[in-house]
Amino acid sequence: MSFLNSANEKEKCYDPRDSTLKLVDGEDEFDFLCEDFKSPRAQMSCGHVVTPSSLTNWCLRLLKEGDSKFVCGQPKCDKEWSYAEVRKMALLTPEEMEHFEKTMALNASKHFFDSKLCPGCNSSVVRKDVSNLSVCCSLCTRKKGQNYEFCWQCLREWKGTRPRSDRCDNDGCSNEALKALTNCEDIIFESVKGVSGCPSIRACPTCGSLVEHNRKKCKNVICPRCKTEFCFVCLNLTSECAGKTSQYFGACSTGVAPRQTSIPVWQQK
To answer: Whole-prediction pTM value?
Structure first.
């Protein structure tokens, strides 16, 4: 079952008699597609106005983007909502609650650990050596009675010599993230003068997550995974780039960083 926009299949409505809700006359601030949900409007703890359907869709979007927490996201509002508040205000169905909780747990494990699902047993495996693509699954090893390793990159049973940091011997094994960095087109910033030859996709210098730039915005972006703000042009932190020149729309003092040839590894403390 696909949960994206599932709230619209049967619209959910607040009960006007529910005294625990703060019902208001304001516009639904999360109805991005102008669907004009029929439910009464209510205020979240941050003060912004939602309907249960629009809130469900917004939180589904956050989960799809890899988040494990729910943040308002309205301009100048980074208020984090508890899952209990989201569950109540979104009027989550039992099926939606199951999906939310499983996805939150999976996203959290990816956020805090370098983990992927083993292709042999579908259990979560944490990679200890980030320089080696060959990873051993202890659960499969016990079940099979022999060492079971899979490729961290193509997620198939390992073939070839080890250790390897580039690819295994399975057909088609390649680093799609590096291919994207190598083959993406250059962009011309509409709001930043004097910049040319900047790739349209960068790997976040902090966590390695791929970020694509909207050329209409300024040169600074916030990574959706680690929330670090960095300059898309020179790849320095915004505080280091704009902080030195006080220019958010001007050329960087260090120029345009070359195309990245490796993916940074998130060294979480």
So the answer is: 0.52
